[in-house]
Amino acid sequence: MSKTVLITGATSGIGKAIAQKLGRNGFRLILCGRRQERLDALQRELGEFTQVHPLNFDVRERDAVQEKIAGLPKEFQTIDILVNNAGNAHGLDLIQDGSLDDWDAMLDINVKGLLYVSKAVLPQMVERKTGHIINIGSTAGKEVYPRGNVYCASKFAVDAINQGMRIDLNAHGIRVGAINPGLVQTEFSEVRFKGDTDKADKVYQGYQPLKPEDVADIVHFVVSRPYHVNIADLVVMSTAQASSTIVKKDL
Ligand code: NDP
Ligand code: 8X3
What we know:
251 residues, alpha/beta, 7-stranded parallel sheet, 42% helix, binds NADPH dihydro-nicotinamide-adenine-dinucleotide phosphate, binds 2-hydroxyethylsulfonic acid
């Protein structure tokens, strides 16, 4: 019987690549995001490999999160793996110049949204005494960088939640681990810079950043380990990147 995985933020970047990698390897998919047409396209693309159920909700809407997950069709109700991936940076401002809307978005999506989805999925894992949570953190959750302030805070929170989940769920035999990537070329910077594609493209110029598929390969490795093996906390960066602020560029 193939495993069922719920992936948040599956419409783009890292989440989409995880959906493609796991789907092509036979995992049944519950794909979440707000852009319905992208969810539908993925369902069409991966339908020949596995069963796919698109689930459209905003992770900030706690009631919608509960209702959508509780209302899954019978064949998708047992969730073996949850990938908490949805999230973004909004803005790259000095703390004194930061926008309250950006701060709300990052804390509401990256932290509270992750908690709402986890709250909707965890009870069934606790009851079955099995399950696997993968939290997508970031190097921004390990090291603060200039102007990273609130985004870094949100990812430090993911790091703390990852540790807290692992401790509290230990008694129930549930695997919990985080994957913390460095710079990955996705729509991330386009969102951070509010659609300014020139600015976004510059983030990835002059070196080879990670591709979303590189992170997806790791997630596939992590979920394919024997159950007694838990990859608890993994940091992955492009070879060109040494830390949040040190990237070797050959411009
Ligand atoms: P993308 O912008 O490409 O993808 C972000 C995903 O999150 C989209 O699928 C989007 O779906 C979803 N999302 C955003 N807001 C919401 C919301 N309110 N409700 C539901 N879904 C939402 O970025 P990445 O793939 O790069 O980012 C994925 C994760 O990886 C994030 O947690 C990010 O912090 C993390 N990360 C990214 C790195 C990078 O350099 N790119 C490095 C380290 C970590 P939709 O808009 O359809 O709702
Ligand atoms: C995304 C990577 O360095 O832009 O989490 O914060 S970084």
